[in-house]
Structure formats: structure tokens, C-alpha cells
């Protein structure tokens, strides 16, 4: 079946503007994760959704970052008043559940450039 | 701070040779996973090893885990040019079985 998809694949925005990134997880996957990857670095955990439970937002770097998820489907990550340090690849992943199988399936990412 | 740290940061080998990458971590874990990333985009899951396992195989991949040393290694045998990618280890700490912590990765280049 289809994998995790993300849109847009690339986004260039001016400093101070808001951006919205979208993630479509694999159908049936109850868990969804957002990560940020700066150039040459590993992945930083941002936020996690599991079913109808309250999301774990502990990785969000500032209150300019927020994310929503509609049920067990699409998620959007919103960055308000973007800064140059927000430039990175934003990766979304989904997994079947978190109590038995931990494999996360990643989307291709959105490359965000803040000028 | 990052949980997993890969070593070396970069590795260049000839096709057919074996490649070994290492990962060290700091806290007790439930599982350790290895992922591959091509061209800085989406990651592909390679293999998961549980904390009570010592070795696992998948095709040309062999992963070992030494919980006493808090380290893992990924061996790719008979490497191919298509194996060129960045390789990351990711751990989930005990009590947090969903939040993966990634290292900075090893950039593997396999020369034809």
C-alpha cells in the first residue's frame, strides 16, 4: 500500500511568515511522529500522536510550533513567525502501534528554507 | 543531548568490502533500531534489536547489541554502491517506548 506522504516537498518562506506542513500517515497506523533534521544532524523528536490520547508535545522547541491531527489520519505541523533557525527537513513517521511493534515508517520529508 | 552516537562519522570503502558502524548510547533501552537515509530525505527502517537480544541478522546486515557496554554495531557484508547512504541508530529509553532518539549518523560511501 501507499507509504507516508508529506507535502510540500520543498518550501521557501520569508522570515516572519507562517508555514503549514502536512503529513498523511499509512492507513491504519495509529501512531504519528514529527521530527526535525538540521543539516548534517540526526533527527530531533518534536511531537507524537497516539490515537485519541493527548499528544506528547515535549519536543516542540518553542510556542511558535504546533501540530494537530484529525483522528488517526492527516496531521499538520504549523510554524508561526518563522525564523532562519527553523530551516531544516521536517520528517513525519507513522507506526502500527507502540506497544508491540516499534518500526516507524518515514515520509520523504519537507525541506523548509527560511530566507 | 542525543542518546545515540554513531562512530565513525564517515566511512569510505570499496565495493565488496564489509562496513562496520558503531553506536553508543547512555541510558537503559527497550530497543535499538538502525535506519538508512538516502540524500537527506526519508529514513528506511533496517532492523530492530530488542534489549534481551544479542545479535540479529537480516540479509547482508548483522546487528549486535551489548547492553553492558551500551553499544551496538551494524555490519554490512559484501557492500554495494547502492549501500551508499547515512546510517542512524535510534534508541527508545525505558519508560518511553515511542520516543526515538537518533544519533548524528555515519555517512557510508561505497566506491564502485
Report a brief summary of the structure.
The complex is a heterodimer of chains A (115) and B (112). Chain A has strands at 5-7, 10-13, 19-24, 31-37, 43-50, 65-69, 75-79, 88-95, 105-106, 110-114.
Provide the fold topology:
The complex is a heterodimer of chains A (115) and B (112).
Chain A: E1 5-7, E2 10-13, E3 19-24, E4 31-37, E5 43-50, E6 65-69, E7 75-79, E8 88-95, E9 105-106, E10 110-114
Parallel strand pairs in A: 2-10
Antiparallel strand pairs in A: 1-3, 3-7, 4-5, 4-8, 6-7, 8-9, 8-10
Chain B: E1 5-7, E2 10-14, E3 19-24, E4 29-37, E5 43-50, E6 55-58, E7 61-66, E8 71-76, E9 85-93, E10 100-102, E11 106-111
Parallel strand pairs in B: 2-11
Antiparallel strand pairs in B: 1-3, 3-8, 4-5, 4-9, 6-7, 7-8, 9-10, 9-11
Explain this structure.
The complex is a heterodimer of chains A (115) and B (112). The radius of gyration of chain A is 13 Å and the shape is globular. Chain A starts with a strand and ends with a strand. Chain A is 0% helix and 46% strand. Chain A has 115 residues and is mainly beta. By secondary structure, chain B is mainly beta. Helix content of chain B is 0%, strand content 58%. Chain B has strands at residues 5-7, 10-14, 19-24, 29-37, 43-50, 55-58, 61-66, 71-76, 85-93, 100-102, 106-111. In chain B, the strands form two sheets. In chain B, strands 2, 4, 5, 9, 10 and 11 form a six-stranded mixed β-sheet that branches. A five-stranded antiparallel β-sheet of chain B has the order 1-3-8-7-6, with no helix packed on it. The mean pLDDT of chain B is 90. The chains are: A mainly beta (115), B mainly beta (112). Chains A and B meet through strand 4, strand 5, strand 8 and strand 9 of A and strand 4, strand 5, strand 9 and strand 10 of B.
Tell me the radius of gyration of chain B: 13 Å
Fraction of residues in helix of chain A: under 10%
* Uncertain residue segments of chain A: none
**Share of residues in helices of chain B:** under 10%
Number of helices of chain B: 0
Low-pLDDT segments, ≥5 res of chain B:
none
- Distance between the first and last residues' Cα of chain A: 37 Å
**What kind of assembly state do the chains in view correspond to?**
heterodimer
Protein chain pair with the most extensive contact, residues per chain: A-B, 31 and 25 residues
Q: What integer is the average pLDDT of chain A?
A: 91
Task: Give me the Rg of chain A, rounded.
Answer: 13 Å
- The averaged pLDDT of chain B comes out at 90
Q: Could you say which overall geometry of chain B the principal axes of the C-alpha atoms support?
A: globular
Amino acid at each position: 500500500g501507499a507509504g507516508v506522504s508529506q507535502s510540500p516537498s520543498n518550501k521557501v518562506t520569508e522570515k516572519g511568515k507562517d508555514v503549514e506542513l502536512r503529513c498523511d500517515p499509512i492507513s491504519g497506523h495509529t501512531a504519528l511522529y514529527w521530527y526535525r533534521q538540521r543539516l548534517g544532524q540526526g533527527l530531533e523528536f518534536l511531537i507524537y500522536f497516539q490515537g485519541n490520547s493527548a499528544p506528547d508535545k515535549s519536543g516542540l522547541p518553542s510556542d511558535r510550533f504546533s501540530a494537530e491531527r484529525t483522528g488517526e489520519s492527516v496531521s499538520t505541523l504549523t510554524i508561526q513567525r518563522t525564523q532562519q533557525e527553523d530551516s531544516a527537513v521536517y520528517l513525519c513517521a507513522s507506526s502500527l502501534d507502540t506497544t508491540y511493534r516499534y518500526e516507524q515508517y518515514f515520509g520523504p520529508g519537507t525541506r523548509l528554507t527560511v530566507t | 543531548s542525543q542518546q545515540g552516537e554513531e562512530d565513525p562519522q564517515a566511512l569510505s570503502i570499496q565495493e565488496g568490502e564489509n562496513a562496520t558502524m558503531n553506536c553508543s548510547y547512555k541510558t537503559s533501552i527497550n530497543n535499538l533500531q538502525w535506519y538508512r537515509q538516502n540524500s537527506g530525505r526519508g529514513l528506511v527502517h533496517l532492523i530492530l534489536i530488542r534489549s534481551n537480544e544479542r545479535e540479529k541478522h537480516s540479509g547482508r546486515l548483522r546487528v549486535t547489541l551489548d547492553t553492558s557496554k551500551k553499544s551496538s554495531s551494524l555490519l554490512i557484508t559484501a557492500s554495494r554502491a547502492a549501500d551508499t547512504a547515512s546510517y542512524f541508530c535510534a534508541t527508545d529509553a525505558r519508560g518511553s517506548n515511542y520516543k526515538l532518539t537518533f544519533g548524528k549518523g555515519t555517512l557510508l560511501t561505497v566506491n564502485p
